[in-house]
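TEACHING EXERCISE
Course module: macromolecular assemblies
Task: Read the component lines below, then compare them to the predicted structure of the full complex.
Student: A.B.
Group: 4
Components provided:
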Amino acid sequence: MKIKPLKIDTNRESVVFIRKNSDFCRAIGSGILPKVELKVGDRSLYAILNTIEEDFLERDEIGLCTYTTKMLGLPAGSEVEVRYPEPVRSVELVRAKVRGEVLGAQDYRYIIRDIIENRYSKVELTAFVVGCSQGAMDRDEIAYLSEAMADLGENLEWGREMVVDKHCIGGVPGNRTTMLAVPIVAAYGLPIPKTSSRAITSPSGTADTMEVLASVDIGRSRMKEIVERENGCLAWGGAFALSPADDIIISVERPLNMDAPGQMIASILSKKKAAGSTHVLLDIPVGDTAKVRSYSKAISLRKLFEYVGGKMGLHVEVILTDGSQPIGRGIGPSLEARDVMSILANEPGAPEDLRKKGVDIAGRIIDFDPSVRGGRGRAIAEEILKSGRALDKMNRIISAQGPKTPTPPGALTKNAEAVKSGRVASIQNHLLAKCAKLAGAPQDQGAGVFCLKKVGDEVKQGEPLFRIHAEQNADLGFAWDYWQRHPEIMEIR
Amino acid sequence: MKIKPLKIDTNRESVVFIRKNSDFCRAIGSGILPKVELKVGDRSLYAILNTIEEDFLERDEIGLCTYTTKMLGLPAGSEVEVRYPEPVRSVELVRAKVRGEVLGAQDYRYIIRDIIENRYSKVELTAFVVGCSQGAMDRDEIAYLSEAMADLGENLEWGREMVVDKHCIGGVPGNRTTMLAVPIVAAYGLPIPKTSSRAITSPSGTADTMEVLASVDIGRSRMKEIVERENGCLAWGGAFALSPADDIIISVERPLNMDAPGQMIASILSKKKAAGSTHVLLDIPVGDTAKVRSYSKAISLRKLFEYVGGKMGLHVEVILTDGSQPIGRGIGPSLEARDVMSILANEPGAPEDLRKKGVDIAGRIIDFDPSVRGGRGRAIAEEILKSGRALDKMNRIISAQGPKTPTPPGALTKNAEAVKSGRVASIQNHLLAKCAKLAGAPQDQGAGVFCLKKVGDEVKQGEPLFRIHAEQNADLGFAWDYWQRHPEIMEIR
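Instructor-supplied answer key:
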């Protein structure tokens, strides 16, 4: 049939449209055929079939949604063979998993290959994700899944014996330690080719914040050049097909708001492995309103990370950190970038908690270096930051990636004030993050929240607790209303 | 926005199309919004949002797929309010289930109500089905789910103290005992208002086979009349909204080919309860190629059925039957209808196995009558059949439902012959069923397979084992090829 790209955005579900009176539909009869296979040469793509009786397609045309168009990469009018789909064999393995069976390394490779080749419908994908969730996978299975996800996709190579990396599992607003650790570690001399994600559900991801200062969408060869010269970079990972299965799996995890340990570990470690890392420092913040809410859960997660990393030939070290409140003062791309740059510049007003955590993490990474005496890393990191070498390194990375004129914090502001005097007893991470998102973060780089008080600080009635920044009046209103309805964001006692 | 029905068949997924440059899309910004809520007065419907940049919609129009059009039931041009969807709260319960928590009666009601109101996407629905699968639900939860499914939908009432019913969990071709039990039991005098399904994956469902003889798509009032006059009927259940959640749940179970015990029990018993039954006889065929493959599994399933039935106020009795080979000779609507009618007419060549099983089941149902001395039911059933009263009752039911001229067995035939002499050692139910489906059953009423030999029969080389009937040459070829590739359908030793 002839391809007709349609500008229909189906949210990453591969959908095609064929007329009911086409030869194809007449041949398959009235039976239920939820999926078809598209063949072009050796390539094959599975897609959900929507049959139509509308005039926007001819009888010999197959309409493709934007996602399918992108996946196929063929111009309008190209011929594609439309077939009754071969059964996707690995779905049988998913059924086995759902029944409670333990799968092997090869099983996970079959499943991941079929997922990457887009053979799974969202229903099948969901069955896989849910079937693998909470306690259903043993730790070896998590390793098999992680390895399959890492192997079946793009792999970066650095030709260095040691390539370090860091990752935070998230849940704590403002926590931009990566942008401190990368320049410190790179200035020390360890290669740290960092790829980061954009925000999925948070007010800003590292890639969003870095983008205030420099381009992050840099290609493979440019990244290689920068890392060779500067030892480090801060690139957007989405530009590479590292663990492509992960992006597809996330497309069902996100609407379900599910993040089972096995999938989370596989997602993180597969990307690290595919990015060519050898040593990874993992930050798990623990707090009542963070992703991980108890130390016992954090510890079992740590053991899982270490075990699976070991199986994959990755040296993984996990640190448990305080996730009880935001780190730093800014929440949102521009506000966070200011925090980071003020720390690198050793400005007196720079947020101390973020500074300390950034140095801690950089120090732990430097400790990976066999020539460093265990525990000395922190002092080295501290010295690199104080000396201005970290700032210098950051500026070199920024200029190599392509500097930008930073968007200033949003000019529309409103202060959230204390309704009574007392002491800040707690800050609800997820509510404050929501407030920053309502203000427009991360779409509007200047939008977000600037914390003027943190837990333990004394406040007087009427004193500002945090400032909402927005670029648009409506957004300022949304964020303000949210604060009005949720005074528990900062509890004063 | 203004409704524009589009003839786009999305396979029971509620999908709407809105232009990217509509006020609605501009207001929500670039964020991910996979779902929207449509409000018309008090009613609300959730739908997947596909944003488009095509001209077949105006900026103020919302395009509806055929399924959404049907669900809303409003004409083109009607105004509908499109909203950012309220979060579907019961999805939180699904997440809890996936995490391994035990849910309560009210939880299942919330979930089922949201499912019926079409608030679940297929991803969420799949998470529910998989989260409830294999061993994840305790028996009380199965009862809660069954009751919620029965209550939230249409309920039939008969004003009789005792209303009997039967059900077979399926997997054995030809097994049309319902069409024997209903006339026998109705002739005895117990009300048996039977609703049956069409084939989902089999070559014929009871509704398909009955449809060879009479209309099965009879409305509620007509069914009531017939049952009042004749005590029994053989109607298609799809005409009623009995356990509507079940149909929605099946739409994800079917593509996954999953049929977990909890869901199966809830599906069956919710329909029985909603159909107003008080006493149910359940047939679980056990065999190597049946749905249930071991007696130990069948027994634990029996206990679950009895327990859940009891909780729901249903008297459920379960019989385990021989599921090692097809029952009767015909497989496919017309061939099965012939088997049934020949037994009711006491014809000498009628298949004895089907006759015996039909009488057994009718007898067990008659035993439900408190005035019958335990175990006497079978003799009563035998007598009713022999006397011709069952045939008479069947003819009255047929004529009340609207008689049809039966389609004869397909005139295109080909015999599957023994490649060697010996004894039939086994018959593979699922393969023989597949062969009948390839021949055109149940779409072509005359298509199917007629068994000339059964397990234990002696055969000589070249002697026919079964006859394929088709109405179309191509289908005869498909079925024949399948037999050629699968001589193990009937093993001769």
